[in-house]
Records
---
Amino acid sequence: MKHTYEYPRAALTVDCVVFGFDSAQAALQVLLIRRGLAPFKDHWALPGGFVRVEETLDDAARRELEEETNLSTVFLEQLYTFGTVDRDPRERVVSVAYYALTKPTDHTAAASTDAAEARWFPVTEIPPLAFDHATILDTALVRLRGKLRYEPIGFELLPPKFTLTQLQRLYESVLGTPLDKRNFRKKVLSHNLLVPLKETHREGTHRPAQLFRFDPVRYEKLRKKGFLFEI
Amino acid sequence: MKHTYEYPRAALTVDCVVFGFDSAQAALQVLLIRRGLAPFKDHWALPGGFVRVEETLDDAARRELEEETNLSTVFLEQLYTFGTVDRDPRERVVSVAYYALTKPTDHTAAASTDAAEARWFPVTEIPPLAFDHATILDTALVRLRGKLRYEPIGFELLPPKFTLTQLQRLYESVLGTPLDKRNFRKKVLSHNLLVPLKETHREGTHRPAQLFRFDPVRYEKLRKKGFLFEI
DNA sequence: CCAAAAGTGTTCAGGCTACACCCATGT
DNA sequence: ACATGGGTGTAGCCTGAACACTTTTGG
């Protein structure tokens, strides 16, 4: 830690990779906003903005998320800090990237954003992005895939009540591989972290599916004893 | 991304958690420097300093490491960015933390630092640290433990030629649990990533130990095929 | 010949993988 | 009655855990 404070300073921003899951299409999606200003005017970009001196990084991420996409109370975690010198053509900007997981329940809110246009894109059909946001998105995807395997964060992308098939589709989309139905069910149920509800999910012309909810309290207890989720 | 540039800016620093491993004592160690200036004058702290506008974050971390500890060519990876508002009593400072792994071969260099006093501390005997550096160190330890289990970064803490017992002691110190000798050897050798050398390591009054080196080329090939290290 | 660490195989249990059919519903 | 997804059990294999003695050296 040096004692000199007189050098020019980099600007500091946060950018958020917001993931959502569309159960109908079994597709992992990302929320992007259309830029109204140069540089990269009319390009799609990650929601984000400048960090204020009186707010923490987490606060800044939540604030920008709320301002630009109307999303609140989502799972939010710091991802990585991007600091190459030329990532912003105007001047030096260092960006602390976050990734967020949203439940479909919250998506309606996300649609009604104020000024900028916001839209969900399947991760397989991402348009060209502003700045180094494609790199940030890639980093977030890698992290999400890794994390999904040993922490129960998949539930953050599903409604509070979900079927095992929805959960399996989610894992398959994120990990990019098909999974065996029987083995998948055996494994996720073996932890006793999924509570079967009295309700069923009726849809289409076939047998209704059992609905479950995730039990976060029980998970906390297990986790403190050194339990690893693993799928 | 907003278009306003006129707000006051946070200062941006990098801090490095430098790990080393003392085979003789089988102890994981951290390199700390004594602060010569307020605040926290005479406290121990992580090496670090301000990021210049014309250098990347990685460059800043390497530069500070070299300036303050004479260490170069070490394994260096971004850890997490710490941005609570009051972490520095003087003003708003956001710090991008890195962790570094050094081989004992480099340690001699580390001793001969210029002005500030630098010293290795076993992770079990860390003195009170300046700022939020204790939190940063904890975060680094958690990361190191996690990473050691599924990526071959342990070799970054050993000399280029090492014995299996040294490797086992390293894993035991970092993970904090004793490991079974036969099972450990079976597992690390099963990947064929350790090349036995023609030399042995003679020490003390007992049978000499076979020396090995890690084969990074072979590891790269395996990794690209989706191989996971795992111990 | 003694002390000290190096080196080496087998057995058992539990978890992972592969795999095919019946069930409940709406039309 | 038929089409559609929901739901279930078993057998073989492989991996991980437990465990004790011989070997080589220096003093």
---
Amino acid sequence: MAEGCQPGDRLPSEAEMIDRFGMAKGTIREAIRILEAQGLVRSRTGPGGGVFIHPVSEERAAALLGNYFYFQQLSIDDIYQIREALEPELAASLAGRLSEAQLSALEAVMADYAEPARTAEEERAQHIASLRFHAVLAEMSGNPLLRFLIRFIANMLSEITVSRQLYAPPNPELWKSGMDYQSRLVAALRAGDGDAAREVLRGHMKNAHRLMGLQEAAVTQRFLSEPGII
Amino acid sequence: MAEGCQPGDRLPSEAEMIDRFGMAKGTIREAIRILEAQGLVRSRTGPGGGVFIHPVSEERAAALLGNYFYFQQLSIDDIYQIREALEPELAASLAGRLSEAQLSALEAVMADYAEPARTAEEERAQHIASLRFHAVLAEMSGNPLLRFLIRFIANMLSEITVSRQLYAPPNPELWKSGMDYQSRLVAALRAGDGDAAREVLRGHMKNAHRLMGLQEAAVTQRFLSEPGII
DNA sequence: CCCAATTTGTTCGTATGTATC
DNA sequence: AGATACATACGAACAAATTGG
């Protein structure tokens, strides 16, 4: 940063750094690993290789931030408080700005869960796929911060749903109402009606919040009633 | 994770890892550095020392995520789109739940910028301090996700304000209206009126968004008019 | 297809710094 | 004060990967 390096620029080779800083190879390499773990550089072997500055990828940033929340145990309420605030604004800001190709991309995601689930495995897959709808929607935002936050939160909710098995209690209402809200959302987006899109997504989030809260309670209940756990 | 380790647990010593994984000291050390850079472990020298699992701190998480946005150049609009969505909800969720000690802590922060700034340096300090008000407020939320996001965004806005010198064009209106909104917010929180708190903070954000947008435009304008820049 | 050069990756042995008992 | 148990650092050699001739 001090030298104004840009992505793509090469850092000095190990040998040069050993000379310049008067340190041993191992020490230099550990320092480079620290940068690499943060996603700031990548290294390649061979001639023309070396250590190169790299913009931190969204995946890396999400993984690193995920480590933080791994220790925080978020509740469904915590996550939906944010989703209820952010997602409606995303919808409003996208209304009338999406191409027909983008709108049909959303519909293509919805096609992945058009049919009701018949097994627990299908139930799980549908939960994940319906969260992907929101990630795809966020991808279309011109706001990098909003895009990252919504995608990150959808991913985290995905992981929590799987790890806590919140998909386990079969719930056709969750699936059916979700489908309904999402198709009404695409219609509002296509019509360019921002206020309608905001309201549809607000309803979607409130409804999902309520139903996921019930799933969470059902799973907790089931654990509590398992003999020998408590 | 696979072995169910908890914060405070010790990882095997370097010597043990060398044996267990059949790798050399340098390789093991690089691996540990990768974990350390992510904030997942800390290492101490000496007897009783070693590598210990550590919950990722908020500071570390914010720094790592900040690396991502370093490459994204956010605009004032991007940041305020999020602030306008999140901060009013934070206010509403806190109304009537704060102790008198917490309410006076907020007032104590406000005291740091009770007087109008007389120099550019004071102007800068007041910008930072008034963002600290929001960080302190977020600290009082029971939602770890909301807490982190608001504090992170306030910090980032702080950095952007300083690095782009958005405090440079003197703007007494920004200061005066900010003070006004914040004291009305504390009153609404004290009264336990969530809807009022939400509305005050919504107004605060919309107003700050408008004025910071003007600051951004003024700075851009000033750069454009500097001879020799373009 | 192979060979040579370049650069990171890995290993081993040794020495040093640091905190605890 | 000294022994012990750790991480930290150094240096030389070797291995693996990639590129270009």
---
Amino acid sequence: MNDNGTVPTSKKTTPDKAAPARRAELLATAAQVFAEHGYRATTVRRIADEAGMLAGSLYYHFDSKESMLDEILTGFLDDLWARYDAVLTAAPGPRETVTALVTASFREIDRHRAAVALYQKESPHLAGNPRFSYLADSRRKFEEMWLGVLRRGVAGGDFRADLDIRLAYRFLRDTVWVAASWYRPGGTHSPEEIARQYLSMVLDGIAPRP
Amino acid sequence: MNDNGTVPTSKKTTPDKAAPARRAELLATAAQVFAEHGYRATTVRRIADEAGMLAGSLYYHFDSKESMLDEILTGFLDDLWARYDAVLTAAPGPRETVTALVTASFREIDRHRAAVALYQKESPHLAGNPRFSYLADSRRKFEEMWLGVLRRGVAGGDFRADLDIRLAYRFLRDTVWVAASWYRPGGTHSPEEIARQYLSMVLDGIAPRP
Amino acid sequence: MNDNGTVPTSKKTTPDKAAPARRAELLATAAQVFAEHGYRATTVRRIADEAGMLAGSLYYHFDSKESMLDEILTGFLDDLWARYDAVLTAAPGPRETVTALVTASFREIDRHRAAVALYQKESPHLAGNPRFSYLADSRRKFEEMWLGVLRRGVAGGDFRADLDIRLAYRFLRDTVWVAASWYRPGGTHSPEEIARQYLSMVLDGIAPRP
Amino acid sequence: MNDNGTVPTSKKTTPDKAAPARRAELLATAAQVFAEHGYRATTVRRIADEAGMLAGSLYYHFDSKESMLDEILTGFLDDLWARYDAVLTAAPGPRETVTALVTASFREIDRHRAAVALYQKESPHLAGNPRFSYLADSRRKFEEMWLGVLRRGVAGGDFRADLDIRLAYRFLRDTVWVAASWYRPGGTHSPEEIARQYLSMVLDGIAPRP
DNA sequence: TATGAATGAGAGTTCATTCAT
DNA sequence: GATGAATGAACTCTCATTCAT
């Protein structure tokens, strides 16, 4: 969203260059607490505690609690779409595209676990807020992407002809993202491994193939 | 004014049934609002507005906001387990059991949509609260039930031998219940129809079988 | 305050004749609860519970919580002054007057324990309320009565000449009435016995006389 | 801004002492209002008004209204028992002990008037609350202390042989402490003067000695 | 950069009171 | 006489936010 700090003369109240490391740290802390307790239930004081400072001090770094949430979500979505776009640009066949997208998604869950969980939980409530209109935009883009892949897959015989496309879309979408609620980075399964297993279930089912 | 039920056409033969009806109405309203905005973000005033009364009036019927949540969740879980237990008592083969459980689940989503959505969203935060310890109990029972069915299915050849049981359990669990977030009763698909489609994807995959 | 029901045609909402027994019962209950928990801390519902009815039902008998308090206090004060006036009319010597007044007071504590405790605790807060102006009146009358007796006693040599009259008045007043906070009717000491012991301490001191 | 106490004339050498001072101020204010209107009847807004701040601001300094009450009472009792213990350690004869204890009590009324009045009024209601169990403890210790002194006094001939010890204890206890309800610091009588007069009445009675 | 103290807008809850039945 | 349901004002407490230092 910001094409890198090439304009050092800008004089924003909120320093975007002064201590980016501290900002990132604080955002990571905030994301974790938000994810664990929910955005509303999380007090700004709790975040500050976790960061070893007082509540008021956070306002030197951020305009508001909402702007923290905003930054966390945009950070995640920018990253996610960069990966998705790379996959779509390569444009392999439908089955390979699904595989690549699901794998990319699990990698994002691995990198941005808290943000993903947060996104899952808060996204619906935030829909009406103009500041978060990009969430609806992303959702739309996401839906188009998946519906397109599924439609092409059915047309080309990669996927079953009797598939209810919209239902299958929801099935895929939910199935992948809820994983953020139980996934813990550094566990026994790597994101790629989980992706592989999920894909095998989704593509071929849990019943044995003849 | 009514000298006991001598007039069977009277609308309220048993006046002591009137109160529970009002309670149920209010709980339904509360569940909807909770599900839409989240438990924390929902004010007791909002529920009262929706019910056409003042905030304080709710306290004639309920002890607290929390006790409303409690009643909503127990109402749903009691109902759910009655159905599950019926299925488990019948004890058909693993594939039929999965089919029956998933179908029962979608029927519950149909009957208790708000409660299910609420359960999905709030259950994790409520874990630590002793009052809601039954949530953890239910979760445990649920997990045992599914792991058992899957294990038996793999052993008997009903399910693929290479299945990661725990992963498959999570996959099934999440896949079914998140549907509550988008399902709207009275839509184009009946719960049974959705269950059928989900089961076909879960059991046989989205890729065509040879 | 009401010279007995000689006007049966009166049509008050609050029936003063209909069921005087029930009223008295309810007032006794209210007085007890008020005395135990304090007027403010006592909910109208608590009184109703104790009386075996619902909160709203009390309003058939009384206009308000405050009017219950009012009736309790006037009932006590009317009774008290009837006794005091009898003593003052007899007008014996100062030492005998003190004896008679203190004995009468302990008898009132015995008969109206709850009302006395209530009076002790709430009287100061009620001072500003016009409805309870009779409390200040009573207090004034009370003070004059005691100061008069003490003054006469000092002048006549019945009491010590070096007595600080105002201090002695407060000493006597408080000493007697706080007993309501621990006195329980039906205990080992009769009111007369307690009065006798108190008088012996007050008049002659706890140190032995030569 | 102040590089440690190099400037002894600075008004706040130890900035960490500033906060306790504010707390003490606020507690004094709260105690006064509590004493005047009663704990229950006192709103937190009233205290805040009196302190020149908003109700919510009090919660920066205190956890709850109850914790203010708690601090006020413990502050008083700690102080009181320090004095009493000093008297008991010196352990003079019974008559001198009574004199010392009563004098100490009046001094405490002088220093903690509001707290004493509060203690008198609220102590009974607080008995059941575990947080205030120290009130019952103090009461017990207090009773033992007085009963002991009186018993020794009677045994040694310092007090009348016909004294009902328990009754005399209550008499002394109440007599002294109710004074808090009318005592105003800075009046015509010093605490020591009031103590002297009270003692003369209690020890030798109001009737003249032969 | 961070603190300490305060603000002000609500939140959940309580309770005396009303009133149709 | 009493009930059940509701009102509405007030209460304690929470929390995002501000700002002088």
